[in-house]
Write the structure tokens for this entry.
Amino acid sequence: MSASHAAQIIDDSNNIQVDDIDRRLIMATQAGLPLVPRPFAFLADRLNLPEQDVIQRMQRLQDIGVIRRIGVVPNHYRLGYRANGMSVWNIPDDKVSEAGKKIGALPFVTHCYHRPRCLPDWPYNLFAMVHAKTHDEAMQLVDQIADLLKECDHGHDVLFSTQILKKTGLRLL
Amino acid sequence: MSMALTELDRKIINTYQGGVPICENPYAQMAQQLDIDETLLLERLAYMLDSGILSRFGPLYNIEKLGGAFCLAAMKVPSERYDAVVELVNGFQEVAHNYAREHKFNMWFVIATESRDSINDVAARIEKQCGSRVYLFPKLDEYFVELKLQA
């Protein structure tokens, strides 16, 4: 796909109603939830809002999917998951949704996306990140995915990362 | 790198990759479910954050829902120009993450901008500066459930 056409087909699930107070709350919590017994009261105090207002807004942000989840974000590498492979698959277009759901549910796959092919250089339309402790283990997991896909697998590859060249914090707002 | 991960730490990681309650005293509720003191839970979370076992604790935002556009991009960079291209690509503030990967497509990065049209503009500017084609792989659909790596 050429650069001029790609952006037109980016998913259009945006346009969520978030007001300025929500944005301040997001800014105040994107680095983490305060480690104090009443974290929302702590935030409320900083933002000059009632505690119940903060709690209701956080609940709403979670309900509408702006917050994916609240919890720990482990450092994969520090947990021993040092072989991170981006497995990429060529799946018939009419099977990609079914295949994606199956692969996304596997315990060792953290992200699974349908993306466009870039023919003729890039025939793959399904991307699944596989995390394992060793390179060999990662390749075994990829074999498991291939077994699961059977005849839907029209070719695949695995791209291992060799270096993080840049990783900036997400600029939310 | 050495690290001390106790059984309790593992249990915290495996139990709370999501599902922290939104209420006045979330840590007390979590501690009750883990059958430990709230103080101990707060101590272990602080320890795991300080030691880098956790990169974060708190809400994980789906920034795409807040507007803005994101797109995975890749380039095939000749090895003799790789370091120079890294510097050029990383110099774009719109480039959020950039990874070297073992493949003909050897550089993979995420372009994050305010609007969808800007994705194309940034890609075109990167192409021009680097002299390599930028392939764009926008997300069409996503299937992952959640993070679920076991500690």
